Amino acid sequence: MHVLLVGNGAREHAIAEAITRSPRKPKLYAYMKANNPGIAALAEKVQLGDYKAFDAVATFAKDVDFAVIGPEDPLEAGIVDYLEEHGVPCFGPKQDLAQLETSKSFTRELFKKYKIPGAPQFKTCFSESEAREFLEKLGANYVIKADGLQGGKGVKLSGEHLKNSAEALAYAAECIRKDGRVVIEEKFVGEEFSIMSFCDGRTVKDSQPSQDHKRAFDGDCGPNTGGMGSYSTGRLLPFLTEEDIGQAHEITVRAAKALRDQVGEEYKGIMYGGFMATANGVRLVEYNARFGDPEAMNVLPLLESDFVEACEAVINGNLEDVELRFSEKASVCKYVVPEGYPTNPVKGEKIEIAGTPKARVYYASVDKRADGIYMSSSRALAFVGIAPTLAEAEKIAQSDISKVRGRIAYRKDIGTKALVEKRVRHMRELRKGVQ
Description:
Helix content: 25-40%
Low-confidence stretches: none
Radius of gyration: 21 Å
Oligomer: single chain
CATH architecture of the largest domain: 2-Layer Sandwich
Number of domains: 4
CATH superfamily of the largest domain: ATP-grasp fold, B domain
CATH topology of the largest domain: D-amino Acid Aminotransferase, Chain A, domain 1
Mean pLDDT: 95
Shape: globular
Number of helices: 14
Largest sheet: 6 strands, antiparallel
C-alpha cells in the first residue's frame, strides 16, 4: 500500500507517524514545501515543491492508494478536486466544502440558513458603515474576524486586542479593504476546547477533546499565534461535562448535513471544531477543515485503532463500520519558537537539544543541516509528553523543552496544575451563575 501525505509541519509529522504505524505497513510518499526531517525519515519517497503545483503533486501521486492533505492552504486552492479528477482519492474536503474553514462568512451564513445551534449573533459586513452600525449594536463585547485564511492570527477580540471602538472600526475597515467583507460577531464568555472529528459526509466520529493556547506568553498574555501548545486528558477535559461533549458532537453532525445539502457533496476528512463551553451551553467559535496544529500531536499518538483504515472508511463512506479507539492517557504539547515570535522573530538561528528526550519530538518549521537544526521565523519543535496523568505528562514535556539551547521562547504554563485549575474555577463560576 502507498499513501501520499501533503504538508511539512509538525502536524504532518504526527500524521506521518500515524500512517506508518498502521498494521498494513503502508509506504509513505511525502510531498513537502520544505524538508521536514521527521517526515523524511519515515517516508519511502520525498518530493519538494509548491502545494499549488497540482500537476507535480498528481504526477508524484500516480502510484498511491490515497492522499492525506495536511494544511489548509492546498485545500483552499482545490488540491482535492484536482487529485480526485486524476484518480487519487483524498482524505480531505473539496474546495467548496473546505469553505467551512476558508471563509468565516460561509460558515456563519450556513449555520443561520440551516438553524444549527451554537452560533453567535453576527453580521457579514461589506462596508465601513455596516461595520460601524453593527459594532454599535453589539456594544462593548465583540469579535472581528477577517474572512479568509490568516494562519490563526486574523481574529481580534474587544478588550484583548482592540481597546476601543476606533481600533475596532479601523481593523474592520482593513479587513474589508483586503477581502471585501468582514465578519463581526458577539463575544462568547467561557473556555475554549477543540474536537477533531472524522467525517465521511454522513457519519461523524470524534477524537478526544484538547485545549489549544493561542497567546504567545505565559498567563494567556501577548499576541495571538498559530498555537503555542495544547493538552488533553482523555474523554473529558477537567472543565468539561459529558453534556458539553454531546452538544459539540451534535453541532458537527448538523453542520455535516448542512454542508451536504448546501454544496451537494459529502464532506470527507476532518471537521475540527473550535468550541467554547459557556454558562448557557456549547458554542461554535470556528471550524477548520483539517487536523489542528498543535492538537494533532495530542490526539494522534493516542489513537489505538488503525489510522489508515479510518482514512479509507472516510473516503469510501463507511465510517460507521469502523471503530475509533483512543488511549485514556494525558498528553501535553509545548512548542519551541524563535525568540521574538510572532511579531519580530529571529531567523536562521541554530538550536540544540541536550540529551535524549523522553517526550515525543515533532519537527515543524526547521532546516536540518549537517551541523544541526536551524529555525525559520515560525514554530520550530513540538515536545509532547504522554503519561497516565496530566501532571506527569506536563513534567515530561517541560523537562525536555527546558534542555533546548538557542535563542528560543516557549510557554512554561501549558498543562500545569495552576493554569488548568484556573480554567476549572472559571467554568464553575460561570455555571453557578445560571443555576
